[in-house]
Amino acid sequence: MVRGGNGAKARHFRWEVGYVFWSPDCEENMLIGINGRYPGPTIHAKVGDTIVVELKNSLPTEGIVIHWHGIRQFGTPWADGTASISQCPIKPDETFTYRFKADKAGTYFYHGHYGMQRSAGLYGSLIVDVAQGVKEPFHYDGELNLLLSDWYHQSMHSQMLGLSSIPFRWIGEPQVRNLKPDPVF
């Protein structure tokens, strides 16, 4: 981490994106993970910090882009992660460095923005706290980051084929394990 004059820091992350086997609902599936984990790591920063993510694509046959949902890319449109619009996909075995400012406090998330990669597990949280020395606008006792997502037992490739087929083939709703009237989580 490198500290700037106003207390802002450069926050560096090194990611390797690849396929992993995971069992989010006790049924093993292949999904896309970051550094061998699912979901991806939570990024913590403060307003004014520069976020630097060096991403290596270890998927053997697919490109990757990451969209930082809710982050305004003022002056850094190439970091927005919209495939083939603001950024070419990162090719297999290549590395790309995202660099952008965290300009607004809030809880955000990032996700794969190429094909169906978000549904295959390529996502995580991005939390931007108020700048150092700035008072929080609300009082709260604690913080819990809860990241929810649909989970399908069909691969992202099966989903993509079904969605683009004529006639359209819907794979169904996300799978639910606890079907009791009063679910206990």
Automatic annotation (TrEMBL):
Coiled coil: none annotated. Pfam families: Cu-oxidase_3 (PF07732). SUPFAM superfamilies: Cupredoxins. Keywords: Copper, Metal-binding, Oxidoreductase. GO terms for cellular component: plasmodesma. InterPro entries: Cu-oxidase-like_N, Cu-oxidase_fam, Cupredoxin. The keyword Oxidoreductase applies. Residues 17-130 form the Plastocyanin-like domain. One of its GO terms (molecular function) is oxidoreductase activity. Belongs to the multicopper oxidase family. This is Plastocyanin-like domain-containing protein. The lineage of its organism: Eukaryota, Viridiplantae, Streptophyta, Embryophyta, Tracheophyta.
